[in-house]
Structure formats: structure tokens, C-alpha cells
């Protein structure tokens, strides 16, 4: 096991009816700004529940944060928050709203000329004291409700960048599985794929004898394979939805990452596909991961065998054939969720591949748990995904 | 899954050489009291490492905290801390030292006449602001390094009581597996049994469709069955010791407890055996658990079958026979660690059983995940353990 430091102070408030607990969790004198997305929370009743819980509080609103939240939109929210003297942010939504709100929380107290540097310059980010934030999660997927990371898109330049800050863990996150019943099929499928990929990024690397962490990761993956398709057929089944919601949070809150190497090449490549073509994040991961497994099969040999055996029950035969089967199962799983896993399914071809490889070359990016995914390997992966 | 609230702010600093990071973790102006046990830390070099790391700090010491820490000893530490104006406690040791230090942290600012009521009266405990504490763990077992519970013994009355306080999570805990190399065989065996029992207490109840939590618990149990005996034969194997240390912390930090019922009857019964006969805590759990599984086999039917299948690979045959086998495997596992699992092995008989049943009757205790373990059921369990 590798040396590690772990700390995650977020308070998780999980279960039916939890939104009613909101008021008691926010400091009495807070000036609250509630952030949300395109308005689905007004249709499914979450907006009304939050307003009811906070009816006696000082509360303003900022709606309209889009999927893959835009820097340009978020800077408007920053101005609104600054004018109103906001001291507490409450993100009501999925990963995009929460990620966007994490950026807002940093930018409110940023004093420079170009807040984009919060994402690009760790020295700038380090000096900032973010506004406290909390969340009411409406879409299980990104794990952002219990971690300190965020991904922001700059529409003007088609860039999508991730950042972390030690003080943007949500103070608390309310997870009520019932609010997810009305989610569209596509968002649930993407959320399952996203969660599955998050776990693979932290698990499918090389063995470091982290026995418990491996079992935890396999436990989440197994659960997703068990509940994935049933959940798509039964959105209003509390058992299925609560397990999905819990799995998504556990998939990216640092627990399975303790003491193990991490990959994240699939995410980095996927972000480009979203930035360039607007593909859903979960979809990009389902496209890239099977192809990456294929190209990186030698470096990931041992963990691919373990994954095949423990998650898919592939425990006999020639190792290379077992790996083939594990990759096939992975692709089939994504397809069973209704997600197409080839670039051609989205009319994406060589031109995009060339652009991505150029971008990574320019940024001198070498990805993966061994930094061995060079821009040319990225080309191989995307060619496999064609 | 049941509704739950989870929060665990402890910072985990894990790995070789981590004690050197101590100084940077404790606030600069702190008046530190380092607490420890019988002096083993002076033999294995941990004491020297801690002193070296804190050589320029304001630091006093309180040694001599015994196993199953005594209220009487801890009150001496409280007086020492009060006189010196201590503002930060650093527990260097195993569960007993850490539990004892948690009590000290509460009692330093207690203003009443009888500090024992911190353990017996939640209203008293609630009003206290504990002194901040942190730990350097030297014995994996109790999980106390990453939770907010403690168990204290009153020697004068042979009582052993547990308490919790929201503010006694360690600020940080340093876990360096190398400092455990010199542990005596008996303490490692007890630690493995203790961890195994902690997980069973949170897992072996009734199903609530908490799929990920079950997999997590099974992952820890499987890991312990894999590393237990090898570790006893190879104390200085980093892979084995680091996995044990990690498993012990994960076994009782709240993660596997999210949204599931909990038992703890074995612990409550075991505490009495320790209080009356001085038996090691881990030993009491290894005695009580197989007997409790036997007596409670109907109520725990489904989870016993799942446990047998996923932890011990028992997946065919008559359900009652499968449960018999699961219980046999559990007993054999404890015995393989060198721990005898019958009361007769320790010359304990009916007299003790009568006393324990009387005590539980007097306290009106009904134990277990369904509060169905009545004092008479406790008698059945202890008779099965004879």
C-alpha cells in the first residue's frame, strides 16, 4: 500500500425526507445563495421543498447553471453573490451545479483580474478562502457532493479543466433518493456509467497490495452491475435508487483512493470530447474506457485479470482471453445502459482525434497511473474507440 | 437502506515514516500533553520518534495508562493536564490509551463533582467542550483512532462503560505500520479478532438492502481471513501489517455502519467478562460471537447465509447446515489466531454467567439489532460458550 493522507469532513445526510433537515444545518446568520440548473427542480418539487425548509432565512437565488458549467455563467453568479454579500452557498442539483458552485465559492473572494486562473494557477487558488457551501443532490453521478474537486468549462475556448481546493468540501450534503425518481433515463444511465468509470480510474491500475481498497472498489462495481439495468426499468424503486445514490457518492469521496495509484486518463480524454462535441460526460467515459483497457492491457494486466474474476466471474482460461472477456463485459455493460460506446455512433472521426492529440501534445500531457499515456497512446485509444 | 447521518472529520496520515509529520499537524501555540501506556513505546522507538518530531514544542507527558483504561488513572491525568494548562492531547498507543485520552479530553473542562457522570449522563457530556486530541497509533484493533467513541473501566466497581461525544474524533491520526512490527503475538491476534468482531457487529444483523455496505464489510472480513495467520507468522511484513492496520481503522470509523442496523450485543457481554476476569477484549469477542451466532441464528438467518457464502465460500447445501458451517468457520478462524473460544478455557463458569445476567437484568438491558437479546438470551449465549 502506498503512503496516503485522507480527510473528508463532509456531513452526509441520507434518506427519505432529509431536505426538511436543511434549516438546522445552515448557520443562523448566513446570507444564503441557492444555486441551481435549468429548472428541473421546480418540476420535481425539490425547489419547493428547499424554499419551504428555508422560508425564514435570508436567501437569494441563482438559476440557470448549465451542464458542464460555464465559467461565463458562473462569473455572473459571482457578481450576484458579491453584490448581495452572500456568506453561504447552497447548490441544489447534480454534479454540474455543485461543481459550478465550488468555483463560485472560490471566485467570490478572488481579487485578481482573471478568475480563470483559479483553475490554472495553484498558487492563486491556495491564497483564496472560499465561501462555505453545502448541497442538496438531485442527480447521483459525479461524487461532487462529498469531495473537493470540480470541473469547469470555458465556452469561449472550448476548454474543460478540473481543479481542487482543500476548503471546498461541502459542509453537508443532503441525499434523498426519492428526489431522483423523476430523472430522465439518459441521466440515470450516464450517472451509472460515470460512477463505474470513477471506480475504475482508482482501481484498474497496478497492484499495490491494497487488499481492502480493492474489495471496496469491487463492491461498488458489483453493485452497479447488479442494479444498473433494473434501476433503468424501475426509477421509483427506493432500494435500487438509494443503492445507486450511495454507490455514486462512495465512488469518488476519497475512500477507495486511499493508498492506491490512480489513472484518470479516460476522464482527461473524455473531457475533450465533451468540450468539442457537447457529448454527455458519462457517454465519453463509456466510449473511452473499453478502448483504453485494450491499448493499456499489458500495463494493466494483473488488475484486468482481477477485475474480470471478481466483478465478472471470469476465472478460468488463457489470461489474454480472460482480459478480452473482461473488456467485452465492460462494453456490454455500458451498452446495456443504452449508451453507445463507439465514436462512430456520434459521427466523430479522425479530425477530432487529431485535434485532441495536438492539444495534449501542446500541453505536454502524459496521462495515466504511470504517466505512460503519451499523446500518441491517446491517438491509439481513440482509434480503438472509432 | 435506512436513513443515516455520517460525518468523520479525522485526518488519516498513513504510511512509513509518518511520525515525522507530527509537528506540522499540531497548532503552533498548543500546550501539548502526550499520553501513553506501560512504556512499550520507549522500547520500540516510537517515544523517541515523537519526542524528536516535537522537540521544539511545549510538551508534558502522562504515562502509565493501562489496558482497559481505569477512570482512577485517567483522573490523575486530568489533574496533571489542568495544572499545566494543557490545550492539546496527543495519545501515543493503542485503543486503551486513545480511549483514555478521549475521556481525559472531556474531563479537563468538566466542572462537576463526579466525572464518571460524563459516561453515564448524556446531558452532562453534551455540555462539555473537549480539549482537542490527536493520536499516533501503535496497535491496530479498536478503530478508536478514527471514531468518537471510548470505553472506560472503573476499577473500584468492576464496571466498563462506553461513551460517545461528537467532538472527540481525533484531529488527526498517524498510522505507521512499521511501528507495529514489535507487537507481541497476543496483541496482534487480539487486534485481528477485535476488528473481525467490529465488522460482524455492523454486518451480521438483518438485510436492509444496503448492497455497497455489505460488500465493504465482506471486503474487510475477507481481508482479515487472508492476512490473519500469515501476519502472525510475519510481523515485519509491511504488506501484511499495513493491510491489517488499514482494515482495523475501516472496521470502526462509521463507513460500514452507514444506513444499516447494528448489533453490539457481543461487545456488551464481552465487556463484562473483561471487567470481571481481566480477559483481553479481543478474547472475549472470540468467545461470545460464535455462541451468539448459534443462539440468534433464526433472527440472523439471511445474513448468516450471506456471510457463509461470501466470506467462507459456503454456497450449497441445506441452509441450516450452511449456517452451522459458517459458525464453525468463525470459531476456527479465532482459534487459528491462537485464541481459545470457550469460557472453560479460562476457568469461567456458571457463577460468572449468573452475575452477568443479574447485572443486565438490573440495568434493564435488551441488546442486539432488534433489542431482542434479553438477559435470559444472554444466559443462553454464555451457556453455549461454556
What structural keywords apply?
386 residues, 6-stranded parallel sheet, 8 strands, alpha/beta, 12% strand, homodimer
Description:
The first copy, chain A, contains 16 helices and eight strands. Chain A is globular and about 65 Å long. The longest helix of chain A has 23 residues, at 211-233. In chain A, helix 8 (185-203) runs antiparallel to helix 9 (211-233). In chain A, the strands form two sheets. In chain A, strands 1-8-5-4-2-3 form a six-stranded parallel β-sheet, covered by helices on one side. Helix content of chain A is 49%, strand content 12%. The first copy, chain A, starts with a strand and ends with a helix. The model of chain A has no long low-confidence stretch (mean pLDDT 96). Chain A is an alpha/beta fold and 386 residues long. The A-B interface holds A 1-18, 172, 209-216, 218-220, 222-223, 226-227, 239, 242-243, 246-247, 250, 255, 258-259 and B 1-18, 172, 209-216, 218-220, 222-223, 226-227, 239, 242-243, 246-247, 250, 255, 258-259. Strand 1 (4-14) of chain A pairs antiparallel with strand 1 of chain B, so a sheet runs across the interface.
Amino acid at each position: 500500500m502506498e503512503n496516503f493522507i485522507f480527510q473528508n469532513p463532509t456531513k452526509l445526510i441520507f434518506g427519505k425526507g432529509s431536505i426538511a433537515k436543511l434549516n438546522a444545518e445552515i448557520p443562523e446568520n448566513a446570507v444564503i445563495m441557492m444555486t441551481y440548473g435549468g429548472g428541473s427542480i421546480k418540476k420535481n418539487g425539490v425547489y419547493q421543498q428547499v424554499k419551504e425548509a428555508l422560508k425564514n432565512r435570508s436567501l437569494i437565488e441563482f438559476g440557470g447553471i448549465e451542464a458542464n458549467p460555464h465559467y461565463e455563467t458562473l462569473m455572473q453568479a459571482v457578481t450576484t453573490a458579491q453584490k448581495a454579500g452572500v456568506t453561504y452557498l447552497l447548490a441544489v442539483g447534480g454534479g454540474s451545479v455543485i461543481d459550478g458552485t465550488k468555483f463560485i465559492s472560490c471566485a467570490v473572494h478572488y481579487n485578481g483580474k482573471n478568475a480563470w486562473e483559479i483553475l490554472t494557477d495553484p498558487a492563486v487558488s491556495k491564497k483564496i478562502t472560499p465561501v462555505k457551501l453545502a448541497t442538496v443532490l438531485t442527480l447521483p453521478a459525479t461524487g461532487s457532493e462529498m469531495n473537493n474537486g470540480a470541473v469547469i468549462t470555458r465556452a469561449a475556448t472550448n476548454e474543460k479543466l478540473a481543479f481542487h481546493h482543500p476548503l471546498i468540501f461541502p459542509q453537508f450534503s443532503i441525499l434523498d433518493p426519492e428526489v431522483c425518481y423523476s430523472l430522465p433515463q439518459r441521466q440515470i444511465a450516464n450517472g451509472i456509467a460515470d460512477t463505474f468509470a470513477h471506480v475504475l480510474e482508482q482501481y484498474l491500475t497496478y497492484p499495490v497490495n491494497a487488499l481492502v481498497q480493492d474489495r471496496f472498489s469491487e463492491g461498488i462495481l458489483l453493485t452497479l452491475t447488479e442494479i444498473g439495468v433494473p434501476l433503468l426499468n424501475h426509477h421509483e424503486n427506493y432500494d435500487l435508487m438509494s443503492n445507486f445514490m450511495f454507490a455514486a457518492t462512495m465512488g469518488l469521496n476519497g475512500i477507495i483512493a486511499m493508498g492506491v495509484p490512480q489513472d484518470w486518463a479516460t476522464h482527461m480524454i473524455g473531457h475533450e470530447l465533451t468540450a468539442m462535441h457537447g457529448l454527455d460526460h458519462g457517454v465519453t467515459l463509456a466510449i473511452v474506457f473499453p478502448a483504453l483497457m485494450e491499448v493499456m492491457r499489458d500495463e494493466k494486466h494483473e488488475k484486468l485479470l482481477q477485475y474480470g474474476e471478481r466483478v465478472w466471474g471470469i476465472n478460468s482460461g488463457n489470461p489474454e482471453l480472460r482480459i478480452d472477456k473482461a473488456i467485452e463485459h465492460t462494453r456490454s455493460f455500458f451498452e446495456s445502459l443504452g449508451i453507445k460506446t463507439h465514436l462512430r455512433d456520434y459521427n466523430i472521426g479522425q479530425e477530432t482525434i487529431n485535434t485532441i492529440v495536438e492539444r495534449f501534445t501542446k500541453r505536454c500531457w502524459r496521462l495515466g497511473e504511470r504517466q505512460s499515456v503519451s499523446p500518441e497512446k491517446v491517438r491509439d485509444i481513440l482509434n480503438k474507440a472509432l
